[in-house]
Amino acid sequence: MNQNTVKDLREQTKLKLLIMSMSLSVPIIVLVVLYVLNTTILNDSVFVKKSMFGSMPWVPGVVGGLFIVYILAKLFKYIRILKDDEYAKTVAIVKNDERNKFISTSANNMASKIFIYVMCVATLITAFFWTELFLGSLICLIIFIVIKVFVWIVFINKY
Asked: Are 52 and 37 in contact (CB under 8 A)?
């Protein structure tokens, strides 16, 4: 294994560790803001007399908790790369393997195609039942397609 590859991996990992450490505060802030909105502003409103999350007030806590667990797992992985030489070499080999890159690229491409089809069907279904959800899903679909086309154009011009 080339020592420069492991060194480059460690340099990238330091930056990722810093970014992920800062991003740990995002789900915590979102949970606090949602809790404050749910317990004070929305419950005191004349128009809204029930919880923002209906019969499932635990949903934001679970989703936020999952984000926090994911971020902590990434932090531990990055710390292990920085501390353990053998683990850093193994990660560098796996990361630079052409077969893994091809599989990852193919899987991401297929997943994005499936996502577009599912969003199209969901957008069509919601058009008949729920206007706000229809507009939200339509905007998400348009943004995703615009990003995909933009990235495609950049790659066509680059390669």
From this structure: yes
